[in-house]
Amino acid sequence: MKLIIINGPNLNLLGKREPEVYGNQSFEDYLLMLKTKFPSLQLEYFQSNIEGEIISKIQETGFTFDGIILNAGAYTHTSIGIGDAIKAITTPVIEVHISNTFSRETFRHQSYISPNAKGVIIGFGLKSYDLAIQAFL
Questions:
Q1: How far is residue 49's CA from residue 1's CA, in Å, rounded to a whole number?
Q2: 97 has catalytic annotation
């Protein structure tokens, strides 16, 4: 099975950024753990702070991969373009969020991704990615 994790803006700062919300572990360290836990998977990773690059990666992988795990960060709440890209592809997408977006600011309660996603996993810390992989399996 071929999966890709796509992370959006500021997620490159995991382990440094607001540890009370996002924890102390970098995503790169967590990704190594995921690859060890799921050795039979072909697990790729992409991160960008740029909306258009995220859309391009969704389009690039959206017809050939078995699944996309997407944490679009703040673009979740603002990007009609990312939502449209998910609607246009055939690869299923699971939307993930490290924090419980519904316990945060009101603007974080809106998602342009959810209506076109296979499912949504919110608020389990980095384990949200693990749960998404298990959902695909």
A1: 27
A2: yes
What does the alpha-carbon distance between residue 74 and residue 54 come to, in Å, rounded to a whole number? 12
DSSP for 3-69?
EEEEE-TTGGGTTTS-HHHH-S--HHHHHHHHHHH-TTSEEEEEE-S-HHHHHHHHHHHTTTSSEEE
**Number of domains observed in the structure of the chain:** 1
Q: Which residues pair with 3 in a beta bridge?
A: 43, 67
List the domain range (segments joined by +) for residue 123. Answer: 2-136
Q: Which of 30, 75, 97, 129 is catalytic?
A: 97
For tokens 């060890």, the residue is: 36
Catalytic residue among 22, 30, 75, 112: 22
- For residue 70, give the H/E element and its range: strand 67-71
The CATH number of residue 13's host domain is 3.40.50.9100
> Mean pLDDT in the chain?
92
SS3 assignment, position 124: coil
- Give the pLDDT band of residue 131 (cuts 50, 70, 90): very high
Model pTM?
A: 0.92
Q: Does the annotation count 77 as an active-site position?
A: no
